[in-house]
Amino acid sequence: MLEQIWSSPAAVATVVVALGVVLQVVLGQFRGRLASYPGDPIPESQKIRRKPKFKAHAPRKVEAGWQPQVEVQPKEGLLPHKVAGQQVWVFSNTNGATSLDQAQEQHVFEPEVNPNAGDCIFRAARLRDWAGPRPSPAAPTTPLEAARKGFSFYQMIQCEDGQWAGDYGGPHFLLPGFVIAAYITGHIDKILPGPHQRAIEAYLLNHQQEDGGWGTHVESPSTMFGSVLNYVTLRLVGAAVDSPACIEGRKFMREHGGALYAPSWAKFWLAVLGVYEWEGIAPVPPEMWLLPHWFPLHPGRFWCHCRMVYLPMCWLYARRFAFKAAA
How far is CA 69 from CA 16, 74, 84, 101, 210, in A? Predict the structure, then answer.
């Protein structure tokens, strides 16, 4: 029996992981909990109930020249290599005003009123470019009339290939990873030229809160997770270290313990960037992928977003990859 177990690499990996878990639990009883321990459930009476408080200032607008664009479904196949239906923004150096520029004049982003932009600018641009018949601006008087007006609205914002594009907005921890990856690969100025970086800076400044931090998502109060990642992003796209936004961001982080109190994903990106030690991060063992797929905790059984995140994280953790800037 033992010979059969030790002759199988998958079985050996299973035994090793199981022993490691047991050993970690035993050692934890003597040395206390790890710094990254998420904590026990918080009693209802002790929960901190905070709401986001945004700065009361004039929203930053992106420079003229941006135009919404939709990746159209190619006609040659049902499973194209390019992503269809994705809403993107393209920048043109034309001197004429685009539909986005005109839409910005009509829809002022006010995060203190509603931090979720709700795709207002994109929809306004689609409505402005609509050349077909428009419903009456008068309020509907019957349910049927209201339904018809709703149908007309969605007809006007429908894309050319029949689908409805939408902004995947909300989380504040996705954009930082993209910017950091572009930076450490040395292609940030190619992937994100000047207008893109300035637009990102305007977005981050609009979502910075009264206390200097950023939330985990657009409707969240300031968190260390959102603040650490978005502060780094703001600096990578060109914000000066002594700018008011950066000074306020550092003040928030210092007053709340710094990056040590950020969750593992934030620490992971900092380690990849080379500004945080890998020793301060909870292990992400790639050996987990060697387990047999029937094992309940095999990463391949995780939710799709989870496993697709942890697969590259495991590889980078195994390599202890850390960006080193050129001298």
Answer: 51, 15, 11, 14, 33
- Among the residue ranges 109-113, 187-191, 260-264, 303-307, the one predicted with the least confidence is 109-113
Q: How far is C-alpha 217 from the chain's CA centre?
A: 8
Alpha-carbon distance of 19 to 12, in angstroms, equals: 11
Which one of 86-100, 103-117, 137-151, 160-174 scores highest in mean pLDDT? 137-151
Element (H, E) at 179: helix 175-184
Count the Cβ atoms, other than its own, within 10 Å of residue 121: 23
Cβ atoms of 73 and 80 within 8 Å: the answer is yes
Reading the block at residue 45, the tokens are 């009476």
Mean per-residue pLDDT over the chain, rounded: 81
DSSP classification of residue 137: S
Pairing of strands 66-70, 214-215: unpaired
List Cα–Cα distances, 61 to 13, 25, 51, 65, 102, in angstroms. Answer: 54, 52, 25, 12, 12
Q: Could you tell me which of 92, 41, 44, 281 has the C-alpha nearest to residue 196?
A: 92
Query: For residues 57 and 209, what is the distance between their CA atoms, to the nearest angstrom?
Result: 11
169 vs 113: CA distance, rounded Å: 17
The end-to-end CA distance of the chain, in Å, is 57
Q: How far apart are CA 86 and CA 81, in angstroms?
A: 13
Which residues are paired to 209 by β-bridges?
A: 54
CA distance 170 to 290: 35
Q: How far apart are CA 203 and CA 197, in angstroms?
A: 10
Nearest to 33 by CA among 227, 282, 208, 201: 282
Query: What gap in Å lies between CA 202 and CA 122, rounded to an integer?
Result: 17
* Banded pLDDT at 81 (limits 50, 70, 90): very low
Which amino acid does the sequence have at 56?
A
